[in-house]
């Protein structure tokens, strides 16, 4: 179901598309560029509302128009969008082909932002197929460009992506440092979503490095931000990360509460696959404890999942702060 703003935007763009077609029917050549731009905007909006088939159709209508009018920047942007869309439906070969068509266009017309964006997308794709060396090379080249053109958001996003590569290579300190650089930039440009995402990745890195209390704290910081900006998806991710950290710290009822809350969010947003995955985790825990213990935990969770989770987090972090004067 579309939000009011998305519905109005979609209707306006559809009317604009019809107006462009009217110009073309009258023989006005300006209609070509206008129509291509409208189709690209329509595709972008449909991606945002998860109408991927509709978005692809709009992009594929826009692409030959851009080529016909020799708008190479428009062509490159649409190829990048098509690649991103194909990646979302796991057509990795198709996505890579689109990115590799876009890259030489960006370089030929010295479209540096486009080149950096394509390199970042190629790096993301290579991570998905475990080509970490290739991904690192693309990210490092993209990072150079973003810095040269002073695109701080692009720089921060690539630093986060590089952190992911370093973490996959078990270079936890280097990964943490890369995420910390991204965090600083997101903080400076006041991008709350980026701040929360960087904190989340730092927490996951701490968890993998067996620093479970630090992982718990970072996930809690991310959760608070996701709640402030009302990102339900982000909240569910942070709650799952807290559950894993709590379980690693040998707390057993609070992680159940955190997973319970995450599953409720997934159900609320209609993501039954992830809700079912978490319920599977809870069923596995249930199978490993005596029925009376499970019944006690479940009753506490059903009565006040948030209170149970937050109390455990506060107790653990308060104890850590009292043991470490630098935390006070």
What does this protein structure show overall?
- The chain is 84% helix and 0% strand.
- With 328 residues, the chain is mainly alpha-helical.
- Helix 2 (30-48) packs antiparallel against helix 3 and helix 11 runs antiparallel to helix 12 (232-248).
Q: How far apart are the first and last residues' alpha carbons, in Å? A: 47 Å
Q: What is the helix content?
A: over 70%
Cα Rg: 23 Å
Q: H/E element string?
A: HHHHHHHHHHHHHHH
What key phrases describe this protein's structure?
single chain, 328 residues, mainly alpha
Describe what is shown at a glance:
The chain contains 15 helices and no strands.
Reconstruct the topology from this structure.
Elements: H1 4-25, H2 30-48, H3 52-68, H4 72-88, H5 92-108, H6 112-128, H7 132-148, H8 152-168, H9 172-188, H10 192-208, H11 212-228, H12 232-248, H13 253-268, H14 272-287, H15 291-323
Helix pairs in contact: 1-2, 2-3, 2-4, 3-4, 4-5, 4-6, 5-6, 6-7, 6-8, 7-8, 8-9, 8-10, 9-10, 10-11, 10-12, 11-12, 11-15, 12-13, 13-14, 13-15
